[in-house]
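User: Predict Urea amidolyase's structure from this.
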Amino acid sequence: MTGYLEVISAGPGISVQDLGRPGFTALGLSTGGAADRRALWEAAALLGQARPQAALELPLTGGRFRVTAPTRLALTGAPMQASRDGKPLIWNASHGLAPGELLDLRPGDSGVYGYLSLAGGLLTVETLGARATLAAAGLGTVVETGMRLPFGTDPAPATPPQRLPADDRFGGGALRVIEGPQTALFDAETRARAFATAFQAGPASRQGLALTHKGAPFGTATAGLLSDFIGPGDIQMTGAGQPVVLLADCQTIGGYPRLGTVIPTDLSRAAQARPGTALRLVPIPLDAAEIAAPPEPLWLAQIRRQLRPLTRDPRDIADLLSYQLISGMIRGDEEDA
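Assistant:
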């Protein structure tokens, strides 16, 4: 039976996202999808899904929700303050949610994008094979207070809650970069300086993340350069000499030269960097990058190996005394009788 996720309140910028619409770049349509794609694969592992389903993306904002049918949910991405009927919920874990219970999500202290996934996936309108929201193209669903979003039936409601270990991608760090077709257009001094510079995350959107730094602007390499295809992960060097890491909703063609490309495994780290977060660019050979960043479908098996049972705190179990706590108890001297 289809249920509905009722949006009791919603902060700005919440949207429905999945893995996007690959295959339309030649037509000028961005792939889009979740800014932190790994968060959706983590949710798929927690909920036993074969692949990620459409979920809510909450960028530095919160919301309150109820469901009309019981379901399991997963909370992944940037850690948020989460509670169910006022009782805290562990992040990066799966939980049950019953009709009438209030799920409250509020921004945390690190990262940008938090995700709320349901076991049956959100069943909002599908266009061009996806439910992802691409605001510039008028596709998908921007979530507002009062909406009722349909979701699918939980295929395995009796599955015990699980959790994943905390990840370090929400506090900045290294962005590994492979060379691209325009890397050689930058002189050796500029390339060396870029990889030796301590950057901070600057202004960001779903289109791209500016990398700010102290000192003079970087040199550019625009002589005779024609507009070319671009995609998420590419590092464009603007005319002002500032590098920008392109993210999920980036344009499909551009004229700024590209210093290189952040590997997919590290792109979530860039997307989750709040302004001021320390970042650095690290060159990586292509063969090493292929090992460090396997195809996304392989992520699921890797993440599943990290799953652990979610241990509930007895103080949070209202019906604790209804459980059989001493099943199988014996005196210890039966064999002597």
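The chain has two domains: 3-167+307-316, 173-292.
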